[in-house]
Amino acid sequence: MPQHAWLHPLSLAAKTFFFYILLLVVVRVMGKREIGTLSPWDLVLTIMLAELAALPIENSNVSVVEGAVPIFTLLVTQLLMSWASLKSTTARNIIAGTPSIVVKDGRIVEQELRRLRYGVDDLMEQLRQKNLPNISDVEVAILETNGQLSVIPKSQKRPVRPSDLGISTSYEGLPIPLINDGRIDYRALAAAGLDITWLKKSLEQRGIHDPKEVLYASLDSEGQLFVQEREPPGG
Known about the structure:
There is one protein chain. The protein is of the alpha+beta class. It is built from 8 helices and 8 strands. Strand 3 and strand 4 form a beta hairpin. The longest helix is centred in the N-terminal third of the chain and has 24 residues, at 7-30. Pfam families: DUF421.
């Protein structure tokens, strides 16, 4: 066994860890974006980042610095592109593209489908996913720059809302999570104007004597406490 051969696996592990942290930081700096809603620019950027990070890990002749410089270059480029998109509509249209109307007044815009090379079958599939299988029920369908289809049904085909019937409704905010996997969220408890004494008393009223027995507990906007206990081991 060559002298210091054991250093190579450690070096490889260190490189892998470094580029994992680096990519994590870079992606966080670039902003939140779901994988399913990536624009062409974001998709190309993601692929390039993965390739650039893999190169120094796989090739021992490529140093950490040589691998990190292209990644930082992409980060700066992406930030500049984002800045340009915010400042200029023209730049945003060039970088991200523009939405396209593919259905209007219940009729397919055939010319736009041909320009986008987007098949009728693809359009119908996405409409079915929106529970609108009938083209005539669609007021407008817009193909967004990330490939998602936004659909506005005709007024007669939209679900009935309380406002349509003149019914007033009370405010419904997001529930506040108080316990997650047996751990109490003290900050959320304080934000709700409550304390640990109230929480333990509320749990005891349900026959729960230890918050660790709770899988999830939340408080809704009406002050109602939802509690789900853990399942017993082997249950």
